[in-house]
Amino acid sequence: MTNENTKYHKPVLLKESLENLNIKPYGHYIDCTLGEGGHSIEILKKLNEKGSLLSIDRDKDAIDFVKKNYKEELEKQKNWTIKKANFKNINEILNKKVDGILMDLGLSSRQLEASKRGFSYLEGSQDLDMRMDEELSAKAIDILNFYDEKTLAKIFKEFGEERNARRIAKLIKENITEIKTVQDLNNIISRAVPAAFADKYKHPSRRVFQALRIAVNDELGNLREGLKNSFEMLKKDGRIVVISFHSLEDRIVKQFFKEKGIKSEIIVPTQDEINRNPRSRSAKMRVLIKKNK
User: What's the CATH number where 146 sits?
Assistant: First the structure.
């Protein structure tokens, strides 16, 4: 394994993911978000030659990263397949029943820090792109330019749960010609957020950036479709394990599980994991076990 991989590689709730997938050595599994390969490689270790793993990602850079850093494993393990795809189409990607499906809905450290696509409000010089799949047509800057003030406010309110959505949207549209980079948008948001609402522990841009990323990538629509199609692919007693990172995602997962008659308990990172990987703090895991055929 390379130092580059070690630098970024911190799979969230890894132990809990493996335990709740209840991996059978001969079973068939799907990792819906390959990321940096952390979850996938540990699932693969538990499989024998009769088992199989399909790993999916929308991000070509993620796939290239894993193919480079896990080259030896890919050459040796013929039962590991990697495909560039949107997991909402999971039933079209693999035409067979499986024993378990993992959905880790978070961004990887590499995407936040090294993708140069403006996912993080801390990377001020980056362009406002935010596309997980660079084949998508609309970037975050396009949404800011082409949507009107009312629509932008709705996006910030619904996808970011931003209390100052209207004020931020108004100031963005008034200064749209000045917005090119992450820092440009940060500056506008800072001007729009009243001091009374400022949280010294949390960046004022975090909710707007979340909202824009969700809108660009249709994350919530993909999650709803992905859950539906994943459930249909499960064998009896098969499992879906979902790791979400904000309330909008968790609400969708909880509602879907409820519709299937399953009351799912929330599993969260231990304090030790949070200490080692602060980004895991907001992670929530839910587990669905399919009881019908």
Answer: 1.10.150.170
